Amino acid sequence: MHLMSSPSRRILLTGAAGEIGHGLARALADDPDVKVIAVDLRDPGKSIRKDIDELHMGDICDRGFVDHIVTMHEITEIVHLAALLSTRAEHVPEKAHEVNVDGTFNLLRIAAEQAQSFGRVVKFTVPSSIAVYGLSPQEKALGGKVGLDECLRPVTMYGANKLYCEALGRYYGRHYRSLTSDGPPPIDFRCLRLPGVLAAETKPTGGTSDFVPEMIHAAASGQPYECFVTADTRIPWMTMPECVEATLQLLQADSVAQCVYNVASFSASAGEVEAALKAHFPDLQVTYVPHEGRQAMVHTWPDDVDVSDAVRDWGYTPRWTLQQALEDYIVPAVRRQYAST
Ligand code: AKB
Hints:
Layout lengths: L8 E6 L4 H10 L5 E7 L5 H4 L4 E4 L5 H11 L3 E4 L5 H6 L1 H26 L3 E8 L7 H6 L2 E2 L10 H19 L11 E8 L1 E3 L12 H10 L4 E3 L6 E6 H13 L7 E3 L3 E4 H9 L7 E3 L3 H7 L5 E2 L2 H7 L7 H18 L2
Helix pairs in contact: 1-9, 3-5, 5-7, 8-10
2-amino-3-ketobutyric acid binds next to loops.
């Protein structure tokens, strides 16, 4: 929380109650030049309240609600995290489209109007996902790193929503009203395509990459874990501190050559994570009972992604291997978490 009267960066943080929202709010809390105006449908809880300046509970699809907040605070940046993740979205695809696409469009439109009325560009940052990929079984079998523009054939509502929002953001950020406008586009759009994200402090819900975070939380709380994908299911990962750090790095970079960047730290299968976790939690018991639909979704996601654009353009550095991530962050943090509950 900041006492300074008018911080020059006024950030609207949507989806503040989610896992990344908590981490970002914490990381921004000590910057006296930043005011965080958090938005979520639900109360983010006590732990985040000390880190934010204001909380507004409401729906990002409600134009009047968002318009009022953006105008009242002369918002300079939007970090838009609110979304329905891939598994949840498959249960309610029309609702997912409303939140993931209409919500994003609403915010982009309001940000563009805000930029035009105050004569300055509004920065807009949003996470995308490896769900934008849709590898065929043959492409998946090849393994290895997939590039930014390869295999973009999402099979899920969430992946389709995210791929479209990447394009929509690129339009607002680079090509807005290209036939009639002679000024710069109103939005500085930046997007991180995230892998599975591993947080020790919070449990994920609604995602299809949840099998590894769920396994970690089961290990730390002494519960057996029934994994909904096969042991050889492999996707790229990063930890929550790395995700927050990369988001801040992208936000703070002066200018960026591309609108969308892949990030990830390591690639690991469910079975490799189980083996690595057993070095810390030898009693962990995992059984593999694949869920046909969720397995099929993850099977279209790459084993790994090419992050070289982010490394070159704004200094992204993957920090940890699986073993280092467990030793340096995940295991100590989950142990603390379960010791205090
Ligand atoms: C999900 O599983 O839906 C997300 C993602 C990979 O974007 N964690």
